[in-house]
Amino acid sequence: MAQPVMNPHGCDDENEGVQSSERWVYVKVNMDGVIVGCKVCILDHACYSSLAIQLEEMLGKHSLSGLRLFQIESDFTLFYKDKNDH
C-alpha cells in the first residue's frame, strides 16, 4: 500500500505529499505486519528492479527469508493504492 508523503530527507512529514511536474514524487510504503512505513522517492527508480532492491534493503530484515520480490514463490507483492483506495 502506498500513499503520497513527504521527502524523508529534511522535509516536513506533516504535509500530504510533494508534487513535481504535476505528479507525486514520494510514496509511503507499508509492509503487512510492520507498524512503521517507509518513504520512497519514485523518481529515484527507473524500473521495478531498482525499487524492489531498495525495498529489500529497507524492509527485508522484517522477514526471515527477506522479501524475495524477484522470485515467484515470494510471500510479498508490490501494489499501489492511492488515498482513495484505488
Automatic annotation (TrEMBL):
Known InterPro entries for this protein?
A: AUX/IAA_dom, AUX_IAA, PB1-like
- The keyword Repressor is assigned to this record: yes
One GO BP: regulation of DNA-templated transcription
Nucleus keyword on record: yes
**A cellular component annotation (GO) from this entry:** nucleus
> Which residue ranges does the record assign to the PB1 domain?
24-86
Describe the subunit structure: Homodimers and heterodimers.
Of which family is this protein a member? Belongs to the Aux/IAA family.
Please give the function described in this protein's UniProt entry.
Aux/IAA proteins are short-lived transcriptional factors that function as repressors of early auxin response genes at low auxin concentrations.
Entry protein name: Auxin-responsive protein
Tell me which species this is from: Coptis chinensis
Its taxonomic path starts at: Eukaryota, Viridiplantae, Streptophyta, Embryophyta, Tracheophyta
